[in-house]
Amino acid sequence: MELKQAFDIVRQRSVSICAPLQTEDYVVQPVVDVSPPKWHLGHTTWFFETFVLQPNLKDYKVFNPEYNFVFNSYYESVGARVIRTDRGNLSRPGVADVYKYRTYVDEQMTLLLAQDISPELHALITLGLNHEEQHQELLITDIKYILGHNPLFPAYQEDYSFKERSITSSDFIRMLAGIYEIGHTGNGFCFDNELNRHKVYLEEYSISNVLVTNKEYLEFMQAGGYTDFRHWHAEGWDWVKTNQVRSPLYWHEVDGQWMNYTLKGLQLIAPNQPLAHISYYEAAAYASWKGLRLPTENEWEAAAPQLAWGERWEWTESAYLPYPGFVKAPGAIGEYNGKFMVSQMVLRGGSVATPPGHSRITYRNFFHPPLRWQYTGIRLAK
Amino acid sequence: MELKQAFDIVRQRSVSICAPLQTEDYVVQPVVDVSPPKWHLGHTTWFFETFVLQPNLKDYKVFNPEYNFVFNSYYESVGARVIRTDRGNLSRPGVADVYKYRTYVDEQMTLLLAQDISPELHALITLGLNHEEQHQELLITDIKYILGHNPLFPAYQEDYSFKERSITSSDFIRMLAGIYEIGHTGNGFCFDNELNRHKVYLEEYSISNVLVTNKEYLEFMQAGGYTDFRHWHAEGWDWVKTNQVRSPLYWHEVDGQWMNYTLKGLQLIAPNQPLAHISYYEAAAYASWKGLRLPTENEWEAAAPQLAWGERWEWTESAYLPYPGFVKAPGAIGEYNGKFMVSQMVLRGGSVATPPGHSRITYRNFFHPPLRWQYTGIRLAK
Amino acid sequence: MELKQAFDIVRQRSVSICAPLQTEDYVVQPVVDVSPPKWHLGHTTWFFETFVLQPNLKDYKVFNPEYNFVFNSYYESVGARVIRTDRGNLSRPGVADVYKYRTYVDEQMTLLLAQDISPELHALITLGLNHEEQHQELLITDIKYILGHNPLFPAYQEDYSFKERSITSSDFIRMLAGIYEIGHTGNGFCFDNELNRHKVYLEEYSISNVLVTNKEYLEFMQAGGYTDFRHWHAEGWDWVKTNQVRSPLYWHEVDGQWMNYTLKGLQLIAPNQPLAHISYYEAAAYASWKGLRLPTENEWEAAAPQLAWGERWEWTESAYLPYPGFVKAPGAIGEYNGKFMVSQMVLRGGSVATPPGHSRITYRNFFHPPLRWQYTGIRLAK
Amino acid sequence: MELKQAFDIVRQRSVSICAPLQTEDYVVQPVVDVSPPKWHLGHTTWFFETFVLQPNLKDYKVFNPEYNFVFNSYYESVGARVIRTDRGNLSRPGVADVYKYRTYVDEQMTLLLAQDISPELHALITLGLNHEEQHQELLITDIKYILGHNPLFPAYQEDYSFKERSITSSDFIRMLAGIYEIGHTGNGFCFDNELNRHKVYLEEYSISNVLVTNKEYLEFMQAGGYTDFRHWHAEGWDWVKTNQVRSPLYWHEVDGQWMNYTLKGLQLIAPNQPLAHISYYEAAAYASWKGLRLPTENEWEAAAPQLAWGERWEWTESAYLPYPGFVKAPGAIGEYNGKFMVSQMVLRGGSVATPPGHSRITYRNFFHPPLRWQYTGIRLAK
């Protein structure tokens, strides 16, 4: 696909995701990990303005110099930023102004894309598009959090539904011991954390061909899974007690029945759908209760060609660490991945909220162990 | 004035105050003491719905039963409430829905007001109007906080200004020792905390006929007032150090000049205007630095007929405590004042943001010592 | 009594209070308001060293210059201090060293007291003795806290008991409206906060001739006092819920019976003894539940000549504020009282832990509303 | 060595480590990660009483049933425990009682060890001894923390010193790519986390033959290492700013010279000694500044036979995770290691405070990234 066409598609998709929102929904930040939708719209735009247009488009005029202060996320190299917990306190710039900002930057990008694009610039714009795709997934999960934590439980769209298969049987795929190659290869886009491709030795293992379902997880709950410390990491057990956790996020027991909040509102739990919105602690506790374990990210990647994946981000038993020979990019872009390589766990696969084509079998997603507002699920191994 | 007319005027004023806002400004809560403007609009409406319409208008149908959960403030008798820090996390009900709610309740109130109104109901509605007037002042100060803490410093209205006199001279009024009567008398409306009228004995004292100005306070700052613990209460000194306070709220030193954020944006300090936005700690420290003190609320009330007041809420040296013979009203309305009578200081007078006619010389406002987002000022005594 | 004799008696009493302790008991600080006993012993000594000996005894040699850093409490004028929460982290100076410090300072004081003592110095030493007496009361209550919060519930002394009368009947004393004089008079010692004597006008009131008993308070508990918000100040209700308070401090329900920790260990509640260890919130809630109120400090003082008092510090409905004409002493000694005159409530009377002769009817004790590790009780008024 | 002899040696070493302490030093807990020395003495004793004597010595009588409440650390299976932050609030049981407890349990263990010991029991006692050796290292580092954070900077022993070599040259050892075997093998004792031995594939790498010295780290400091975010993980950078870190723990700049607190008191920095007391964040930032990296734990173990190690625990770039085929032991002993396998980093080697013979090349130590009160150091790789 042409870069210009890709740019237009990606930029439009962010706008489409927000189409069902009321103005007020763009503004709030109910918890630190969630950002206001208007912030995502502004921040992805700021990325193109700051890293693409300013250095590369002659005579480019910044839309509003104060926006750098508002829409920078965590790039320490690019000046002061609004501290993260404050994002939900900012009523200005308003939603209309943010859309004007998008339009302005898109027009300027169109000018730039009409020119000769060097391979380096091409790569940078592609990075910007992949960056925006990541924020599109966050847009969906953050909107879900904002609406799903409102006492009125408003739907995002009354008739919204993801395509999700029913899981009614499962099996384990056996993988032989030996040397496997891990990491990205080929000419397509990848993030720096997927490089470089390297050998690993894996002992023999087996990995499930499906994800754990709501029904299976409910059995864990009903067997007292949340009250038996033996299945939990010590810090997971503290997390359960401190937060009085007794079910996945968005689950509510209403008149004796388990329901969950979905993008079309409160619904009965669908027993055969893949479980979602659990923390690493819950994933590991469930696996322990089953007498099994989570796969490592290497085991996952080695088996991936034989797996159906993409409906849930799958917690692995691997911490997010650099691959052998990892080198971070120079400049502010180098802050993209490497600086997060501590205290987080890797998730593999992709989710119903991931933009089509965004993920791949070498893709390394990562979150802190207690976080569960993403569409996270469990695949078992042994 | 007719009750119906009073009702219409008060209800309209809340709407007028919000007229210059963008939708986004209605939603955010940058700090726990500030509420989102749409919450004020909904809560004052909920007051009429819950305490006036439900018990008194036949066949009254509640607008939305879930709104009680959202718009109750602190009336423990009336069911679960959204905890206060969560108000800024709620994008729904949206601003348009809140205005619909207001319209609906106003229509129903119109029906009720067309009927015979018992003296008790008249008193209750009058309380609701005075309650709404209190929230009108909060609307102004909360809007100022929301816009004044935005990095873009947007104006509320470009040409907005309060009528404020220049203070260029001052004098002390001498009051003789003796017995004075304190508390409300007469048939007009008052809050329960102003009752009952009782005698106090005051020693001889003097009280300033004007408020402290910005210029005078700047002298305190330039004399090192914020760095000399001797003028401060112990907890005030902790407050200064913990929060690194070095000026009143909304003051910013820009290129060596002191400016303050006002409702028309960032402005140069007006030297002869009364100082605003200081905490009790700052008021007391300033008085100590001058070798003077703040008046008690009794001293203030005794002298009030000889004072020009109403431009700033004036911190007194009195804690907020019940008057002799204080009795709180029965039921939920009884939660109005009495339960706050600990750990707060009394402020007397009124401010530029107080609705006209709302305050009186027996009026007892109260806030916690560190709070300063109201228009608070200093009057000295000795 | 001679000053030298008073000095010896007071200094010895601190040592006697600590005699039953193990070395380890001198060291810990289980909560910020409690100080390690060795700190009290050192701090009271540091007071004499710093304010009496250094300025007044020729060639006085400081025992250890680093002790100022350890034993200063809150006198900002006298240099850096160990922040208060850190006191329990300091194993050194050890207990033996602190006793050496006391001996050294006592010897030097003996030299000084053998000289001519000016009236000013006499007053200063008397202040130091009253200061040490205040810390003697804290020593007892802090030791009780340290031992009473240990899972082994060790006794301070197996056979320790205070003299406390049984309360089996009660009555209200009626006081007429009129002008009363409040504040200290005469030549005896008093703190600056008791001055100056001034007139107040009191409305007619009645005040109980006895304190509330354990049995009476148990009725409040059994009537659901801790679960009915209507009796509580808003911040008191938050305190109950946040801390899950359901009884006075040191009360434990063991096998269906209420016991309390006393200095001789866990004991059955004595029904007719005066209630102790309740917060201001609990005192006010109890009074509200009875349909009565707490007296103001002025009411208490006016009635005091007709009351038996001294078994419990009695919460009043008065905030701790300066009297008319209050002037704080110059220099570091001036930090003694005035700087605490915000956000605290006055207690009157004295307790079983107060050194004999220390209190008087003009004495103003003060604590923050939630604190209850002192021997605090309730006297009702109406 | 005979088990009885090993038991006697290990138990005596704990006592010897505490010999230089004053009673007060046994009691305090200045920070949550540090435990009072008397707690270590009691807890290691409780381990033998609970897991060895109670199930295995006929008619064994528990020393004091309440000690379980005090000396359990984190074994959820064995009943309620004093929450960790409370350890420093407990003056009782006193030091003498803790030593009586040790003597009693040692006597009972002597009775048991005179009987036939099954292989399972032998393994359990050996685990208890290795457990106590781990606490011996903590005893030293906790005592250092307690004394080194006292404003008087008392020495542990005036003439105490570890044997440490001067490092004056360094080289990199080149390791070839290939399959290596990782994990414990043979009949000796190991922890469950070292099992089971398994193959890994390593790419070619080089590893330094020495640790980073104080002098080298000082160069990093002087080059602005603590003020340049580019070398730091994002959460490391937050840690630096929040805690205002500007040097390793125990370093103090005195009159322009860097000194550090050692067990013999404040000393000038020894330039050629290995750096100690740095967090994982600092280790990683230093490596980044040098353009190098930390080794993984597999790289470390593969190279270990060619390394001199044992003077510092060496941070690796590996998170603490289970080995392939890891199985945790049944029962409470199973809580030993597995439940900590999240959010911690592996350290390899051993330190000057590690009991002789305790560590080995397969040994996996682990701590959270910000912790630095252990003797932690840096070995570089590339």
TrEMBL record, chains A, B, C, D:
UniProt keyword list: Iron, Oxidoreductase
Gene3D superfamilies: paralog of FGE (formylglycine-generating enzyme)
Record pathway: Amino-acid biosynthesis; ergothioneine biosynthesis
GO BP field: ergothioneine biosynthetic process
DinB-like domain residues: 6-119
Domain Sulfatase-modifying factor enzyme-like: 171-304
Iron is among the record's keywords: yes
InterPro entries per the UniProt record, alphabetical: CTDL_fold, DinB-like, EgtB, Sulfatase_Mod_Factor_Kinase, SUMF_dom, SUMF_sf
Domain of life from the UniProt record: Bacteria
NCBIfam families recorded: egtB_TIGR03440
The protein's name: Ergothioneine biosynthesis protein EgtB
Lineage, top ranks: Bacteria, Pseudomonadati, Bacteroidota, Chitinophagia, Chitinophagales
